[in-house]
Write a structure and sequence with these properties.
This protein has helices spanning 43-54, 56-61, 74-84, 97-101, 145-154, and strands at residues 13-16, 21-23, 31-36, 64-70, 89-92, 105-108, 114-117, 120-124, 130-135. It is 28% helix and 28% strand. The chain is an alpha+beta fold. It has a single domain, classed as Glutaredoxin (3-Layer(aba) Sandwich), CATH 3.40.30. The strands form two sheets. A seven-stranded mixed beta sheet has the order 2-1-5-4-3-8-9. It has a two-stranded antiparallel ribbon with strand order 6-7. The radius of gyration is 14 Å and the shape is globular.
């Protein structure tokens, strides 16, 4: 089942890179940009998340919190976050439940890996409704960050 714009966002609680539980529900009243990405330390993922890091003030000005989710372990995410200076929550979906709920998971990825998050972007408004959904089949592509900002600007 794919996530439809206008539907309630699937709720979740995951551990972040600091080993704290983070729930989507704790951001009620704020817009949330949820980014699923395949794997830490890879080229396109690094470019995407560095762009978010470097432009975080733009998202904050639009009353948005950024949550980046992958199936990497909290330990891997902590190392990558420290190395790159990421300034937003990095969440581990190690058990693949949230990636599956958001229809953002590859059955088979590169090198025969199973259950890797698809590169995807969702905007959830302060009431928990999906306002933007982009699921990319090609992991080499990036979500349309300008479109994400445009959607966010209509929510404030």
């Amino acid at each position: 089942m794919s996530i439809q714009v206008g539907s309630p966002a699937p709720q979740f609680t995951l551990f972040n890179s600091e080993k704290q539980e983070i729930s989507l529900s704790q951001f009620a009243g704020k817009n949330v940009v949820i980014l699923f990405y395949p794997q830490a330390f890879t080229s396109v993922c690094t470019v995407e998340l560095c762009s978010m890091r470097d432009n975080l003030k733009d998202y904050e000005a639009l009353n948005a919190e950024v949550l980046a989710i992958s199936v990497d372990s909290v330990f891997t995410l902590d190392n990558w976050k420290t190395q790159q200076g990421y300034n937003f929550h990095m969440l581990s979906d190690f058990n693949k439940e949230v990636s599956t709920a958001y229809d953002s998971i590859y059955e088979t990825f590169a090198f025969g890996m199973k259950g890797v998050s698809k590169r995807s972007a969702f905007v959830v408004d302060g009431e928990g409704i999906v306002r933007h959904a982009e699921i990319l089949d090609n992991a080499g592509e990036m979500p349309n960050l300008d479109e994400i900002k445009a959607v966010l600007s209509t929510l404030n």
